[in-house]
Amino acid sequence: MSDNELGLFLRTRREGVTPAQVGLPTGPRRRTPGLRRAELATLAGVSVEYITRLEQGRDRRPSPQVLSALADALGLSPAERVHLHRLTKAADTGFNCMGGAQPQRDVRPTVRAILDRLEPAPAVVVNRLTEVLAYTEGYHRLMAPTGLFTGTDTPANLSRFLFTGPDARALYPDWGHVADEMVATLKQGPFRADPHIAALADELTVIAGPAFADRVETIPSLATATGITRFAHPEAGALRLAYEILDLSADDDQHLIVHLPADEATAAALDRLTGRRPGALRAVSG
Fewest Cβ atoms nearer than 10 Å: which of 68, 82, 162, 236? Predict the structure, then answer.
């Protein structure tokens, strides 16, 4: 599998910017999605050959000035700029932020107390392997009917469930998008330099095949921290859940994922599912 994450990130972002967004004429005949390399080179003030070297992985250490010019030309968000900087640091294999640390599976009492106060919202704590470590009762009531907690996995694993669960594709109407985000999440960080994530990736490559492996080759390692997930829930029906992914401390190496109803119909359905009085969960918007 390719380890050229910097090149992949730059190419996908280049292809996602339209000429009109940067004040360039579209022209009648364009075979390239987004910007051409020559157009990006002109906007960033570098040569086309240098853009090619970066995208092909033949140069992985652009200067801060070049990074800034590329970020400006591509209109990167603050999170994307930070990620771009991290990708250049990852080119130096002499240091791994995780070291030899085992995946953290102990959840601090304070974090568990926060989960208690989030009831009845579906909320879950996962580690870098996407293992489910702790959750609210609201999350269990949401996910238990889907089969997440069924089987031999201890703890349950969101990635394994998504790519190998028999009912996962039926659960997520936008399964392809959810799968893209899951792969981006796994790739964020050392990925195959981490033996634990590498073992999980090997397993999913064998079991899920191209549905996983092709995404590893084409999806950049930058997952969104907020959004809306649609469910075709086996008991509650159609749901739209807004989510927020909150990073815990680096020592925890864990994330807190909180779901809230994105519309009134979902709020009412979750109230029925959790057995709470109507209005226990309010819909969020915007």
Answer: 82
